[in-house]
Amino acid sequence: MTVISYNPADPADLVVEVRAPGAFGTAAAVERARAAQPGWLAAGAAARSAALGRAADAVEAHADELAALTVREVGKPIAEARGEVARTAAILRYYAQAPYAPTGAVHEPAAGPGLLLTRRRPHGVAGLITPWNFPLAIPVWKAAPALATGNTVVLKPAPEATACALRLAELLDLPADVLTVLPGGAEEGGALVSAADVVSFTGSTATGAAVIAAATARGIPVQAEMGGLNAALVLPDADIEQAAAHLAAAIAGYAGQKCTATSKVIAVGEAYQPLREALAKALSALSAADPALPGTACGPVISQAALDRLAGAVGSARAAGATVLAGGERPDREGWFIEPTLLAEVPPEHPLLAEEFFGPVAVLLAAADLDEAIALANSTRHTLATSVHTRSLDTALAVADRLDAGMIRVNAPSSGVDFHLPFGGAKAASYGAREQGQAALDFYTAGRTVSLLPAGDLR
Ligand code: NAD
After folding, report:
1. What is the CATH number for 373?
2. Which residues line ligand 1 (CB under 6 A)?
3. Contact 143, 118 (CB under 8 A)
4. Three-class DSSP category at 2
5. 8 and 105 share one domain
6. For 95-121, how does the pLDDT look when each residue is reduced to its tens digit (9 = 90+)?
């Protein structure tokens, strides 16, 4: 099979065309990685730390090139692409410290002499399956903790982000078979889950369910970060202008193609009317534009199929009586663009309120009070990140406890979280351990308990 990716802003621009290795090639790559793993672990903490530090240097030294490739291959606006490159380097530097961190503890025996030790060891080969929307940061936030703890890595990037992953691997320049990038699709992804010792997946809910089923059937550790249908709650005491600006960024930024993007805006009581006006104005000001231009917030969506699905959803909502408060149309330009769109009066049973559409389209809802707002926010299975907009700290803390979301952001866009904090959702949005920070170091290692007793008479 051949893997091809195109420029979403200019579909005539073919970014890369490479052969995929197929299932046998994938299994062979995992075997090579398995053979390389003991040497990578034995190289020691200093060697692994230095390799990750050099990788961070290389990413920084090629920041402009990587940002331009991210714009071209996945249509990410240049300002966000630069931010992703900087984050990628920061993640590598953060995990470059991890090889020196303690890997266990010493305990007192319940009785008698001896030492009881706990120690965490790597699983072996980490199989990483990634989406296209963060083509540098997601591969690295999985690979860096896996490598730091002494695993080797086989990464299967999304076909749409193949060129970014191949260039990243070249720049990281790790020893042979320590980090392998395998271009491919479902065949290679499935083969990787069948052969790896630990699996980390990020992508859509349907694919995630298949990956979880296959990995758990093999009895190997697996984590999956999947789709989100994220809400924002705006309370009557919020700064409405500030909330509208944050919401517009969370709806339209990178054309709504972040798993943490906002797609359901819930205005409580008297917040509704002023928010309706302010958000419609803020979104109308962010028209879909060339992602290479410095001022662009909303670029194209990833494919013609994604565009058709979004346009179809907006069309069917309109036909069902929805009001278009902003956008709703395709701009008159080449590429897979749709204007940032805000809909109101959407019928409760419409798919826009149940499924992730992964585009710059949001629905505005009214809630009579906080209880109704929380019920509306929690009414989906895909609760990844929720934002809350209020001036009251008491309300913010109380709401944070009652929301199902894995990540709650107060007076901020739902999208975005620091790279050293646990990352993940609730209910169907996530499976298994959290990503990032210490949680990732724990996920890529298994604990063991060692009891050391005297070999003979101590006297
Ligand atoms: P996708 O599910 O189509 O693909 C994800 C990856 O899985 C790709 O590498 C793909 O080739 C691979 N794959 C496909 N079929 C497979 C199979 N049968 N077995 C193993 N691997 C298989 O998702 P996508 O379109 O690349 O990414 C967009 C999705 O990712 C959205 O749903 C978004 O919400 C989600 N996402 C979630 C997070 C998060 O942290 N929760 C972050 C970013 C993106």
Report:
1. 3.40.309.10
2. 129-134, 156-159, 185-186, 189-190, 193, 202-204, 207, 210-211, 225-228, 259, 356, 358, 384, 425
3. no
4. strand
5. yes
6. 999 999 999 999 999 999 999 999 999
Q: Do residues 250 and 219 share a domain?
A: no
- Separation between Cα atoms, residue 337 and residue 359, nearest integer Å: 10
Tell which one of 166, 226, 421 to mutate to probe ligand 1, the residue whose CB is within 8 A of the most ligand atoms. Answer: 226
The predicted model gives 1-13 an average pLDDT of 96
71 and 87, same domain (yes or no):
yes
225 classed as catalytic: yes
User: Against a cut of 0.90, is the pTM above it?
Assistant: yes
343 in any annotated domain: yes
**Catalytic annotation on 298?**
no
> Residue 211 belongs to what domain range?
2-226+429-451
pLDDT value at residue 361: 98
What is the number of alpha carbons within 13 Å of residue 125 lying toward its C-beta? 27
> Is 456 a domain residue?
no
DSSP H or E run through 15 = strand 10-19
Mark whether 72 and 132 lie in a shared domain. Answer: yes
- Residue-wise pLDDT for 359-407, tens only, equals 999 999 999 999 999 999 999 999 999 999 999 999 999 999 999 999 9
Q: Do 208 and 253 have their domain in common?
A: no
Q: One of 188, 225, 339, 356 is an active-site residue; which one?
A: 225
CA nearest ligand 1 atom 18, residue: 186
Residue nearest to atom 8 of ligand 1 (CA): 158
Q: Do residues 174 and 258 both lie within one domain?
A: no
User: Tokens for 317?
Assistant: 């909502």
Residue whose CA lies nearest to ligand 1 atom number 26? 131
How many separate domains does the chain show? Answer: 2
* Separation CA 153–CA 52 (nearest Å): 13
Ligand 1 atom nearest to CA at 227: 34
- CA 397–ligand 1 middle distance (angstroms): 32
Here the CATH number for the domain that contains residue 189 is 3.40.605.10
Pocket test for ligand 1, best of 207, 262, 381, 419 (most atoms within 8 A of CB): 207
Contact predicate 441/97, CB 8 Å: no
Asked if the structure places residue 419 within a domain, the reply is no
Residue nearest to atom 10 of ligand 1 (CA): 158
Annotated catalytic residue: which of 160, 259, 298, 435? 259
Compute the distance between CA of residue 365 and CA of residue 25 in angstroms, rounded to an integer: 50
Residues 390 and 437 occupy one common structural domain: no
Q: Does 259 share its domain with 196?
A: no
Domain contains 139: yes
- What is the reported pLDDT for 45? 98
Where in 20-169 does DSSP place strands (E)? 104-107, 115-122, 125-129, 152-156
pLDDT category at 325 given cuts 50, 70, 90 is very high
Whose alpha carbon is nearest atom 38 of ligand 1? 259
